[in-house]
Amino acid sequence: MVDVFQMREEQWQRVRAIRLRALQDTPDAFGTTFETEARRLADQWIERLTSDDRVTFIAQLDGKDVGLIACAPYNGADVAGLFSMWTAPEARKLGVGSRLVETVVMWAASKGYRTVALDVANTNIAAIALYEKFGFRPTGHTGTLPPPRTHIKEHRRELQLAAPRP
Question: What is the pLDDT of residues 129-143, one digit of tens each?
Fold first, then answer.
């Protein structure tokens, strides 16, 4: 069974550990690098977990941390961004990713967001399939990861949670 927990400030070391593991496992899936994140100070990790408009969740399978996802404002008052999505290799295809995405979508809806947006590498077929399953659709916006990985092309997807305000 997959359990998902919202992380709190006192759990910053746990968040740091799984985030660094994700960056080592799939460095080309993220906009930052292992080196950059490893240099972050404790206060910076804690700040991420104490913000009123940002949330981080960790998934556990059999008591072991195997997934991570975050959500924060994204390009507009009504848009939440899905960030830092990762599932450990040993937990892939076991429903962890689905539980994480479902949790963020429910959290964003509960906070009044109208849309959840994300950027995904064009070659990340498994993630694209997961997002499509939830109804995330391409927006037509494309880009690349920041240097030194500008060779990795990505595209934006959005999930509409409710009709836009008139």
Answer: 999 999 999 999 999
Distance from C-alpha of 111 to C-alpha of 51, rounded to nearest angstrom? 14
Nearest Cα neighbor of 81 from 51, 61, 60 is 51
CA distance 29 to 139: 19
Helix/strand/coil for 84: strand
Average pLDDT for residues 69-80, to the nearest whole number?
A: 91
Residue identified by tokens 């509409």 is 160
Arithmetic mean of pLDDT, 1-18: 97
* pTM to 2 decimal places: 0.94
Please report the pLDDT score of residue 166 as a whole number: 47
CA atoms of 117 and 100, how far apart (whole Å):
15
Neighbouring residues of 138: CB distance < 8 A, sequence distance ≥ 6: 155, 156, 157
First-last CA distance in the chain = 41
Architecture of domain 2-160: 3-Layer(aba) Sandwich (3.40)
- Give the span between the Cα atoms of 106 and 72, in whole angstroms: 13
